[in-house]
Specification:
This protein is an alpha/beta fold and 206 residues long. The protein has 9 helices and 7 strands; from the N terminus they run βαβααβαβαβαααβαβ.
Length: 206
């Protein structure tokens, strides 16, 4: 990224990624529907130097609200990490995110890999929970093929995708270089990446 980007971060969480981008000189807009999390991020932003505060804007909204706030082509980069509402029809939200991307803009999408949902339960010996993932799903089965099809239809085809948390748990130590090396290799290698707990898709607006 050799230029300053217009960034939309959908589902700020703790604001870690958004703040990192603002500190790097990019102009960031963050959407967060949880009032408590939004207040925490705004408090963190208020402690930053003036230049960073000027580049950081927050809105109490979710990914489904982009059409109410932004014109088409407003952003160069849209982050939607663990914020896609899979319990509803995700295609509407994805279409809204694609709409606010400028031509050539990047959508970075991280979602739970529903196809691999039984695996962590089975690893922990929670056999009833693992069986329930097979037999009583109350959420859509969104794997790579389904997401690629959705994104292709809205003019934002996937250029590459990776597995996240293939072997490591979400709370695994982030400073273990051997673990990180294994995860990095597995996350881009077949067939391991398809077994990951989460999927990271990079799609580009046509």
């Amino acid at each position: 990224m050799g230029r300053r980007l217009r960034v939309l971060d959908v589902g700020l969480g703790h604001g870690t990624q958004a703040l990192r981008l603002a500190r790097a000189g990019h102009r960031v807009t963050g959407l967060e529907s949880d009032p408590e999390r939004l207040a925490q991020v705004e408090s963190a932003v208020s402690a930053e130097p003036e230049g960073i505060r000027e580049r950081f804007r927050t809105l109490a909204a979710g990914g489904q609200d982009t059409g109410a706030h932004f014109l088409p082509g407003t952003f160069d980069l849209v982050l939607c990490h663990d914020a896609l509402p899979l319990e509803a029809d995700p295609s509407t939200t994805l279409a809204g995110l694609a709409r606010v991307l400028d031509s050539g803009g990047l959508l970075s999408l991280v979602v739970e890999n529903a196809l691999a949902a039984p695996i962590p339960h089975a690893r922990a010996g929670r056999w009833d929970a693992a069986l329930a993932e097979f037999d009583g799903r109350d959420r859509p089965l969104l794997g790579v093929a389904e997401l690629e099809s959705l994104l292709e239809r809205i003019g934002t085809p996937v250029e590459n995708w990776f597995g996240v948390e293939v072997f490591a748990a979400e709370d695994a130590p982030a400073d273990d270089e051997r673990l990180l090396a294994v995860e990095e290799r597995a996350g881009r290698t077949e067939p391991y990446r398809r077994l990951a707990g989460r999927l990271h898709l990079c799609a580009v607006r046509g």
